[in-house]
Design a protein that fits this description.
heterodimer, A: mainly beta, five-stranded antiparallel beta sheet, 1 helix, rod-shaped, B: mainly beta, seven-stranded mixed beta sheet, 68 strands
C-alpha cells in the first residue's frame, strides 16, 4: 500500500510535468478553454419542400437560430447547405449577396425579424458584412463581419432570409431544391466556429395537395301560371289580368323565376301577339312605357323583379306598361352574370275603347330565358 | 610589621573557620566527590603569557587596560592575572579590575599581591583592567588556559598562601582530586625586581614579570609555572631566582580539567517551510506588575510575610525579592523563604558581609503566589523589596549571565556593567547598603521603576538598605551609574542582571520541543529543523553534522547531505549557507557567539569557533523528506553528531517525524445515474467507471464521484473544489448553470445538501465519506473530514443544456483555484444523446383530392374518389421530429379557383358547413404522438384563413420523435350562382422543425 502511494506520488509528479508542459505549450491557457457552444432555436422555414426531380423546384429559406456567443468583429457566419441544393443555376441567376437578408433580433422571439444588417459582395466596411456564396453550386454562404459595427450580440436571434423572401422579392434568385427526397442537414458555424449547429429539412416528392371541384352550368326558369284573364273589359275602366277573372286594380298576374350560374347571365324575351279575337285586336300599348288609359285600347305588361341580379328590361320596368310587339321577341329581363333566382312579377293591363269590337280576346305570350355561359 | 601580619592571618583564619562551620552558602563550589573514570580534556595554554608593569602614579589613581586579543581567547578560556606591590592597597592591580575576575590576594603579606582569574564568557574579554593606587609600580603577568572546567574551576580549594621573609617563592602543597588538573604555582616576591632562572621542578609554562625598577626596594616580582597533575600530593618546589631574595608569598591553584565535550541535543523545533524562516521579529515589552513592595524585616518574629495579592500577579510573572541585613544569620531574609524562590545573588566572596544580602526570583505558576515569606533569625533587622515583572521569558529569564557584583565602601551602590544580547531585555540594577538605613534620592541615570527599602529603624549601625531600578536595554554595554543616596554611606554591594523578554511567537513554527512534541511532516516539502546543543563538558570542536534514521528503512543513522536519501538537505533560495539564523529556541546558559551556528544546506555544520564548556549553540538545517524513499506513516528521527560521525554524548531530545503526506487528491471512481428529484439518484446509466450516453437531448443526469484522499486527513471544509468539463480532459472549463453541460437546479434539494447514499454508488474499496448534493460550484467536504486513505463522494446534478448532439464531455474535479487534483485515475465522460442525429419526417398521403361536382343544395367533401356528400378524410399528413422545439406545419395556397372565379375561402373562424354558401375550408384531426392541430382548424367546423397564409395548421412542441398523423378534411360549398367551372386549389404544406 505504501509503495503504491509512492508510485502514485511519482505518477502525480509525471502527470504534473505533463500538465506543466501542456500549460507551456498552450500559452498557459489550459483552464480558459473555449468549447463550441450549441446554437439554439434553429430552424429553416422553406417555402417549398418539393424535390426537383421533375423540374426546378425552388424555395426560399428563412434560417433562424440563437447564438449564445454571438459574432464579433471580423468573425463569420457560415451556412452550408447539403448536396443537391443548387444556388447557382436558378434561371434568375446565381445567388449573390442581394438575395440574402441578415436580421438580428436581440430579443429572441422565434420570429424572423430584427435589425437588418447591411450585406455587400466584398470590401465590407466596419458596419457591413461580406456575403459570399461559394462551393459547389453555391451551397456555402459565408457572411463576414466587416468590423466593430457589424457584429451579432451574444444571445441574439439571427434570421437569414435567402431567396424571394429577402429584400428584392420575386426578382431574387432562390436555391433550387434537391433532386432527391428525404432529410437534408444544413450546418451552421457562427462566430468563427464558437457556436455551431445543424438544421434538418425534409424534401418530399410533393408537399402540395391539389384540390379540385366542378361546378356544373345551371339555368332555372319557371312560370307560376300559364293562364291569366282580364275578365270582361270595359272602356270606362282599366283592367288587370289575374288567374281569377281579372281585377280592376293592378295585380300580379303570374311570376317568372329565372336563375343561372352562367358567367354572362341570361336574357329573357317575350314573344307572341296582342289580344286578338278573330280579326279584331286590342292594340298593344307599344314600345314605350305608358300609363294605363281607360277608354283607349291598350294591352301591355310591366314586370317587377326581386332576388338575384336579374333586372327587368326597358320598357317593361317602369310604372307604366309596354308591349313592343314590333320588337318581338323582345327582351324583358336580363342578368349580367351568374344570378341566384330572380322572381319577376308580371302585371298585365288591358283597356278598350268604347268601339272595341266585342269578342273573346286572347293572346299567347311566350317567355324564353336564354343563359349566356 | 610581623605582629600586624600575624593579626591579619589570625583574623582571616577565624573567618575561614567560621565560614567552614557555618551554614552560610558556600562561595566555592567544592566537588562533592572525587571524579571517577571520567574523560577529561587536557588543559593547554592559550597564547603566551603577557607580562608588563603597571606604572606608578603619585598623583592620582590610574588604571591600565592590558590587551588580551593576542592570546586568541575563546569562550570558556581561563585567564589568570597576577599583580603585586611592595606596598599595595585596594584597587591595585587585579583588585581594581572591572571585568569581574574572581580575586584573591592580600595587602597583609610580602608583597601585597592581588591575583584573579576568570572564565571567558561568550564574548571573551579583549582587555583586562588593572588598577593602580600605590606609589610604586607593580608587575603583572597574565596567562590563559583552555580546557578548564568552567563549572568547577578549582579542582580543590586553594590552600592557604605560603609566605616567607626571604628566599624564593615556594608554593604550598596541594592535593588535587582530578587527574589532569593543572597545578599553577604562583609566586609573589617583595621588594626585589627578581629574575627567575628556573621554575619548580617538573613545571613548565613558566613566566615572570617584575616591576622593572632593577631595585631591591619598592619593586616586586610575580611568577608562574604549571604542571599537569596526575596523582598524589603535589608540592611545587620553589622558584629559582638569579636575582632577588626577599619576603614572598606563594599560592597554589589546581585547575580542574573540563570533562571531554559533553554535548546534549536538548531542544528543537520545526518550521512549516524554510522558505520563510520565522524569527522573533519583535519582543514583548517587559512591564512592571503592580507596585514595588518595600518594608523592614523586624526582629520581632521569625518570619516576615509579604502579601503579593495587591500586585495582580499572573502566570509567568517573575517576582524578584531583595533582602539585606547588616549581618546575615542563617535563614535570614530570602534564605528563609519557603515559596521556592531561586536565590540568585547574595553574600559575596566572604571578604566581608557588607552588607549580608540575598536576592532571588520566582516565576509564578498557574496559581500565582499570594505571599512571599522572608526569614528572620537573629538580632539584625533587615529590609526587603519586592518587584514583579511581566513578559519575562520564563524559560530563559536571564539574557546573559550576571556579572560579578560590584563592591563599594562608600556612597551609593554602583551596579556593574552588563551587555545583554537581546534587545528589549530589562536591565535591573540592585544595590545593597551596609549599616545605614539609607535613603535613595537618585537612581541610575536613565533607569526607572526605582524603589528602595530600609529597616525603617533609622540609624547608621546594624541597619541595611536595598534598592532597585531598571531600564529597557537596546544595544551596547550598559553600565548603570551609582544610586544616589541622600542618607547613608557605607559598604555597598551592587548587582546587575538582564531579564530576557518574551519573544513574540514566530509564525510558521510547527512544534517546539515542549512536552516532547514531535511532528508529522509531508514528503517533498521544505521544512526547517532548528536544534540546540548544550556542551556541559570540555571544549568541543567546530564540526558537526546532521543525521537521520529511517525507522522503517535501514533503521540506521545516516548522514544528511544534499544528495542523501530519505532526508535531503535542501537550502532554499532565501538563505545563504552558513548565514546566521535568528535565535528562536529558548534555553538557558551561554550561547556560542550570537546563539547560532548558521543555516546549513549540506547537513554539515561548521562553527566559527570551538564550542566551549558550558556553552550552547543552535543550528538550523533545511530539509525535505524524499517521497520516493519513504511511505506515509514511516517514522524518521533526526540528530546531530560530531563531524567525525561520533555521537554526541547525550540526546535529551531526539525528534521523531511521522511521514504524513502530502495531502493528495485522486479522482478515483464515478458512476452516472439518471436524475431523481432527490438527494438520492435514479437508476444507473452505466456501470461504475463506465462512460455513458444520454438518451435524449436535454436530459438531466447525475454524476457521483469518489475522490480518494491520501497523505493526511482532509479536514472538514479543508479544500474547496469545482467541477469542470470539456470536450477534452486536458481542456476544461468550469461547469456553471449556463454551460453546454450545466448544473441542473430543477430538483428540489438545495445545493450543498447532504447526499443520500445509494446502493449503486461507486465504490473503490475504501471507506466512503459521503458529502453533498451539488448543483453549483464550488463545493467542499462540508459534511465531514475525510481521513487519509478514505474517499469523499459528491453527487453532481447536471443537465445537457443544449450541448451539441453526440458530443463527449469529460468531467474533472479541480481545486477552486483551478489547479488540478494530484491524480485522475478515472475521467467520467458523458456523451450527449446520439439522437441528436436529427430526424424530421413529413409525408402527405395523397397529393390530389377532389370534391367532384358541387351543388349549391348540398355540402361536399373532398376525397380521392370524386368527392363525398358527407365529411370524409381527404388525405393524411404524418410528421415527426426529434428537434428540441418540435415542428410546425403551415399551409399555403389559394382557395378553389376556376379562372377568375373562386369559391370563397371559409375564413379565419372555424365555421360549420353551410350548403348554398360558397365555402372552401378544411379541418384536421390528430392522432398518434402529441402533435396537435392548430386553431382554427382543430374544431368541428372548417377554416381556411387565407389572409394569414402561410398559416400554421399543426405543431408538435416537444420533439419526441413520435409520429402524429393528421387527418385532413376539406369542405366545398357553392351557392346557386357560383360560377360553373372546374375549380382547383394547390395547397402547400410546409413542415419546419425547430432544432
Amino acid at each position: 500500500m505504501m509503495r503504491k502511494i509512492t508510485s502514485n506520488i511519482r505518477f502525480a509528479i509525471r502527470v504534473s510535468s505533463v500538465i506543466v508542459l501542456a500549460i507551456i505549450l498552450s500559452g498557459g491557457a489550459i483552464w480558459s478553454t473555449v468549447h463550441a457552444a450549441a446554437l439554439t432555436a434553429k430552424s429553416d422555414t422553406m417555402s417549398n419542400l418539393n424535390d426537383s426531380g421533375a423540374g426546378d423546384e425552388k424555395s426560399d429559406h428563412a434560417i433562424q437560430f440563437v447564438t449564445p456567443t454571438g459574432v464579433a468583429s471580423g468573425e463569420t457566419i457560415v451556412l452550408t447547405l447539403p448536396a443537391d441544393f443548387d444556388g447557382e443555376n436558378d434561371a434568375d441567376g446565381a445567388l449573390d449577396f442581394s438575395d440574402v437578408d441578415l436580421l438580428e433580433d436581440t430579443d429572441p422571439d422565434g420570429i424572423c425579424d430584427g435589425s437588418a444588417e447591411t450585406l455587400v459582395a466584398d470590401s465590407a466596411t466596419s458596419s457591413e458584412w461580406n456575403a459570399v456564396f461559394s462551393g459547389t453550386e453555391n451551397r456555402i454562404l459565408t457572411l463576414t463581419s466587416g468590423g466593430a459595427s457589424a457584429i451579432i450580440a451574444a444571445g441574439s436571434e439571427v434570421c437569414l432570409q435567402i431567396g424571394e423572401n429577402a429584400t428584392g422579392g420575386a426578382t431574387n434568385s432562390q436555391y433550387i431544391n434537391p433532386t432527391t427526397t428525404g432529410s437534408k442537414t444544413i450546418t451552421l458555424s457562427v462566430g468563427d466556429g464558437a457556436d455551431t449547429g445543424d438544421i434538418l429539412v425534409n424534401i418530399l416528392d410533393d408537399s402540395q395537395v391539389a384540390v379540385t371541384a366542378v361546378v356544373d352550368e345551371s339555368l332555372t326558369f319557371t312560370i307560376s301560371a300559364n293562364s291569366v284573364e282580364f275578365g270582361t273589359l270595359t272602356a270606362a275602366d282599366d283592367f288587370f289580368a289575374n288567374d281569377s277573372g281579372g281585377s280592376a286594380t293592378e295585380v300580379e298576374a303570374h311570376t317568372i323565376v329565372v336563375g343561372t350560374n352562367a358567367a354572362s347571365g341570361y336574357a329573357m324575351t317575350i314573344n307572341g301577339v296582342t289580344l286578338t279575337s278573330g280579326a279584331n285586336t286590342i292594340d298593344a300599348i307599344g314600345s314605350s312605357n305608358t300609363a294605363s288609359t281607360p277608354g283607349t285600347e291598350q294591352f301591355g305588361l310591366r314586370i317587377d323583379e326581386s332576388g338575384g341580379i336579374g333586372a327587368v328590361s326597358a320598357p317593361y320596368a317602369d310604372a307604366g306598361f309596354a308591349l313592343d310587339t314590333a320588337a318581338f321577341p323582345d327582351t324583358i329581363a336580363t342578368a349580367s352574370g351568374p344570378s341566384a333566382n330572380t322572381t319577376y312579377s308580371v302585371r298585365y293591363v288591358a283597356n278598350i275603347t268604347s268601339d272595341t269590337p266585342a269578342g273573346a280576346y286572347a293572346s299567347t305570350l311566350t317567355y324564353i330565358a336564354t343563359a349566356n355561359f | 610589621m610581623i605582629f600586624k601580619k600575624v593579626g591579619q592571618f589570625s583574623f582571616i583564619l577565624v573567618l575561614v573557620l567560621v565560614w567552614v562551620f557555618s551554614s552560610y552558602i558556600q562561595i566555592f563550589n567544592f566537588p562533592p566527590d572525587i571524579k571517577k573514570a571520567e574523560a577529561f580534556a587536557t588543559i593547554t595554554q592559550v597564547g603566551s603569557a603577557l607580562t608588563g608593569v603597571i606604572p606608578d602614579d603619585a598623583t592620582a589613581d590610574i588604571a591600565i587596560d592590558v590587551d588580551l586579543t593576542s592570546l586568541g581567547l575563546i569562550a570558556g578560556d581561563f585567564v589568570v592575572v597576577l599583580t603585586a606591590w611592595d606596598s599595595g592597597s585596594a584597587r591595585d592591580g587585579i583588585d581594581g579590575n572591572l571585568q569581574s575576575y574572581t580575586r584573591f590576594g592580600s595587602t597583609s603579606t610580602d608583597p601585597d599581591y592581588f591575583a584573579g582569574y576568570k572564565i571567558m564568557g561568550h564574548s571573551p574579554d579583549t582587555v583586562v583592567t588593572l588598577g593602580q593606587q600605590a606609589s610604586n609600580p607593580g608587575p603583572y603577568l597574565i596567562q590563559a588556559w583552555r580546557g578548564v572546567d568552567p563549572n568547577n574551576i578549582l579542582d580543590v580549594a586553594k590552600p592557604d598562601a605560603a609566605t616567607r621573609g626571604s628566599g624564593a617563592p615556594d608554593s604550598p602543597a596541594i592535593n588535587p582530586s582530578t587527574a589532569g588538573s593543572l597545578v599553577l604555582s604562583l609566586g609573589f616576591l617583595d621588594d626585589d625586581d627578581g629574575i627567575v632562572d628556573s621554575y619548580p621542578s617538573g613545571y613548565s609554562a613558566g613566566a615572570y614579570s617584575n616591576s622593572g625598577q632593577s631595585s631591591t626596594s619598592g619593586g616586586t616580582t610575580v611568577m608562574i609555572a604549571s604542571k599537569t597533575w596526575s596523582s598524589g600530593t603535589e608540592n611545587p618546589g620553589a622558584f629559582s631566582l638569579s636575582t632577588g631574595d626577599d619576603g614572598w608569598t606563594a599560592e597554589t591553584l589546581a585547575l580542574r580539567p573540563a570533562p571531554n565535550p559533553n554535548i546534549d541535543q536538548v531542544n528543537f523545533q520545526f518550521f512549516e517551510t524554510s522558505a520563510s524562516l520565522p524569527s522573533y521579529s519583535s519582543v514583548k515589552t517587559i512591564t512592571q506588575v503592580g507596585s514595588t513592595l518595600t518594608g523592614g524585616i523586624s526582629t520581632g518574629s521569625s518570619t516576615q510575610t509579604v502579601s503579593l495579592t495587591g500586585l495582580g500577579l499572573a502566570e509567568g510573572d517573575i517576582v524578584i525579592a531583595l533582602t539585606a541585613f547588616d549581618e546575615l544569620e542563617s535563614g535570614d531574609g530570602l534564605s528563609g523563604n519557603t515559596e521556592g524562590y531561586v536565590i540568585y545573588g547574595g553574600i559575596d566572596d566572604g571578604v566581608d558581609q557588607s552588607p549580608g544580602y540575598f536576592w532571588g526570583y520566582k516565576i509564578m505558576g498557574s496559581t500565582p503566589d499570594t505571599a512571599v515569606t522572608l526569614g528572620q533569625n537573629g538580632s539584625f533587622p533587615g529590609a526587603y523589596l519586592v518587584q514583579a515583572w511581566r513578559n519575562v521569558d520564563p524559560s530563559f529569564i536571564f539574557d546573559v549571565s550576571k556579572p560579578r557584583p560590584e563592591l563599594g565602601t562608600s556612597g551609593g551602590p554602583d551596579a556593574p556593567p552588563i551587555t545583554p544580547v537581546t534587545a528589549g531585555s530589562l536591565i535591573v540594577a540592585m544595590g545593597f547598603l551596609d549599616d545605614d538605613d539609607g535613603e535613595v534620592d537618585g537612581y541610575p541615570s536613565g533607569y526607572s521603576s526605582g524603589a528602595y527599602a530600609n529597616t525603617g529603624l533609622g540609624g547608621t549601625s546594624s541597619r541595611a538598605m536595598v534598592t532597585i531600578a531598571s531600564k529597557i536595554w537596546s544595544s551596547g554595554e550598559d553600565n548603570p551609574s551609582a544610586f544616589s543616596l541622600s542618607t547613608g554611606s557605607d559598604d555597598t554591594r551592587a548587582e546587575t542582571i538582564a531579564l530576557r523578554p518574551l519573544f513574540e511567537t514566530p509564525s510558521g513554527r510547527m512544534a517546539v520541543d515542549t512536552a516532547g512534541a514531535d511532528v508529522s511532516l509531508d514528503v517533498d516539502t521544505d521544512y526547517g529543523w532548528q536544534f540546540r546543543l548544550e556542551n556541559t563538558g570540555g571544549v568541543a570542536g567546530t564540526g558537526y553534522k546532521v543525521q537521520y534514521k529511517h525507522i522503517e528503512g535501514t533503521n540506521t543513522w545516516t548522514d544528511i547531505s544534499g544528495s542523501s536519501d530519505v532526508v535531503v538537505a535542501n537550502l532554499t533560495s532565501d538563505f545563504a549557507n552558513g548565514a546566521d539564523v535568528p535565535e528562536f529556541i529558548r534555553g538557558s546558559g551561554y550561547y556560542l557567539s550570537n546563539n547560532n551556528a548558521g543555516l546549513e544546506s549540506t547537513g554539515t555544520l561548521t562553527l566559527g569557533t570551538s564550542l566551549p564548556s558550558g556553552f550552547s549553540f543552535e543550528g538550523h538545517i533545511n530539509f525535505q523528506i524524499v517521497s520516493s524513499d519513504v511511505d506515509v506513516g514511516d517514522t524518521i528521527q533526526l540528530r546531530v553528531v560530531y563531524g567525525t560521525g561520533t555521537e554526541l554524548e547525550s540526546y535529551t531530545d531526539t525528534p521523531t517525524i511521522t511521514v504524513t503526506g502530502p495531502l493528495s487528491f485522486e479522482q478515483e471512481a464515478f458512476r452516472f445515474f439518471n436524475n431523481a428529484d432527490s438527494t438520492d439518484v435514479g437508476s444507473p446509466l452505466q456501470a461504475q467507471n463506465t462512460n455513458a450516453t444520454l438518451a435524449s437531448a436535454g436530459d438531466a443526469f447525475r454524476l457521483r464521484m469518489l475522490m480518494h484522499i491520501d497523505g493526511q486527513t482532509l479536514t472538514q471544509n479543508g479544500q474547496s473544489f469545482k467541477l469542470a468539463f470539456g470536450t477534452s480532459c486536458a481542456s476544461l472549463s468550469e461547469v456553471t448553470g449556463a454551460t453546454a453541460i450545466a448544473f441542473s437546479t430543477a430538483n428540489s434539494p438545495s445545493d450543498g445538501t447532504a447526499l443520500t447514499s445509494n446502493a449503486n454508488d461507486p465504490n473503490a474499496g475504501h471507506l466512503v465519506v459521503n458529502q453533498d448534493y451539488e448543483e453549483a460550484n464550488n463545493f467542499t467536504n462540508s459534511e465531514a473530514a475525510i481521513s487519509a486513505g478514505s474517499d469523499g463522494q459528491w453527487d453532481f446534478s447536471l443537465i445537457d443544456n443544449g450541448a451539441p448532439a453526440g458530443t463527449e464531455y469529460c468531467f474533472r474535479i479541480l481545486k477552486s483555484d483551478d489547479s488540478p487534483l494530484d491524480t485522475y485515475t478515472v475521467d467520467p465522460k458523458i456523451t450527449t444523446a446520439l439522437s441528436e442525429v436529427q430526424t424530421l419526417t413529413f409525408s402527405i398521403s395523397d397529393n390530389s383530392v377532389e370534391f367532384g361536382t358541387l351543388a349549391s343544395g348540398d355540402d361536399f367533401f373532398a376525397d380521392t374518389s370524386g368527392g363525398n356528400a358527407t365529411e370524409v378524410e381527404a388525405h393524411t399528413i404524418t410528421a415527426s421530429t426529434n428537434a428540441s422545439d418540435g415542428y410546425i406545419i403551415t399551409l399555403n395556397g389559394t382557395t378553389l379557383t376556376s379562372g377568375e372565379d373562386t369559391i370563397s375561402a371559409i375564413g379565419s373562424t372555424n365555421t360549420a358547413s353551410n350548403p348554398g354558401t360558397e365555402q372552401f375550408g378544411l379541418r384536421m384531426t390528430a392522432s398518434g404522438g402529441d402533435g396537435t392541430v392548430s386553431a382554427p382548424y382543430a374544431d368541428s367546423g372548417f377554416a381556411f384563413d387565407i389572409n394569414n397564409f402561410p398559416d400554421e395548421v399543426a405543431s408538435d412542441a416537444n420533439g419526441d420523435d413520435v409520429a402524429t398523423t393528421y387527418s385532413v378534411r376539406y369542405l366545398g360549398n357553392i351557392s346557386a350562382d357560383t360560377s360553373a367551372g372546374s375549380y382547383s386549389a394547390v395547397l402547400t404544406y410546409i413542415i419546419t422543425a425547430g432544432f
